[in-house]
Amino acid sequence: MTKTAFDGYKPSEKQLDDLILIAVAKREQMAADEELHPLEPPRDGLAFTGNARRIARFEELGCDDDEVDAAVRRLATAGMMVADGNPAKPGQSGRSVRLSASGYARAMAVSRKYLGEPLIAFKRDKIFDDNNCGQVEVDFLGERIVIGCVEGEEDRAIQFAHRLEVDAGEVLKAAGGLDHARAILMAGILAHEHIAELDTEMRASAPASDRTVGLNDSGTTTPPRLGGRDERDSRVDLTTRGTLVPCIKTDIKTGMMPPPISGSR
Questions:
Q1: 207-231 residue pLDDT tens
Q2: Helices 154-174 and 180-205, packing angle to 10 deg
């Protein structure tokens, strides 16, 4: 794996933040320490990836310890990184860190810019390679899983996987003893219920000129469509709508992105 060294030039603050995210993400994918030595056994999802200063030195990022500490503070404040203590007080040895889901997504989004290729330090899945898919490794409900995605949209796949993990986690908290498969299915139903509601609201508020009416197979008119998208493509029929899991406190209804789960990516 090529180092993320900045070709001998001193990076700006933003560039340093990106390079540190990539360097930490690489070690998380490889299950490796600061100097890229494999860890046996691999660290779990709550373990810190490594000391930010030592990682920056190994990667030859062209910055001193104070600059690394400042980057950790910026990234922690932005919610992209979790430190093992107050990042404003790094002490003599600096802070050990791990990435949040948003930090990992950012690392994947900018990796091509700095590495010239997507950051894939994990073991690729041949199924996705055979089908010309992009792929990314995510932490999901305590497991590290390689999933397929649209090539170039790895960061979006990470963000959506994390969102689904949060929603499934809320289901699990609300219904103790439930298995993961049913929790994920229930979270997906809630999400699609919200999508259906938004789709209905968009069609209702769209100007008449934006709606189209076509003929179905029987020759009768189909329901109005917005942007050529058939209502039937996104409709979710939930007979228990609104009562599926009434005690779940979820942001699905508001459409607000929940905060990252501490220690989760």
A1: 766 655 444 555 554 444 433 333 3
A2: 110
C-alpha distance from residue 17 to each of 77, 160, 173, 174, 215 (Å):
12, 23, 35, 37, 54
CA 136 to chain CA mean position, Å: 10
- The C-alpha angle 258, 178, 167, rounded to 5 degrees, equals 15
Question: Residue 208 in 3-state DSSP?
Answer: helix
Distance between first and last Cα of the chain: 22
CA distance 78 to 143: 25
Beta strand 143-149 pairing with 134-140: antiparallel
Contact criterion met (CB below 8 Å) for 160 and 102: no
Q: Which two tokens stand for residue 154?
A: 């790895």
What's the DSSP call for residue 148? E
The first and second tokens of residue 151, run together, are 């090539």
- Reduced to 3 DSSP states, what percent helix, strand and coil does the chain have, rounded to the nearest 5? 45, 10, 45
| DSSP letter assigned to residue 209 | G
Hunting for tokens 């980057």 — which residue is that? Answer: 71
Q: Any idea how long the chain is?
A: 265
Give this prediction's pTM. 0.70
Q: Cα 257 to the chain's mean position, in Å?
A: 12
**How far apart, in whole angstroms, are the C-alpha atoms of residue 156 and residue 226?**
25
Is the separation of the CB atoms in 118 and 137 below 8 Å?
no
Q: Which of 18, 44, 19 lies closest to 31, judged by CA?
A: 44
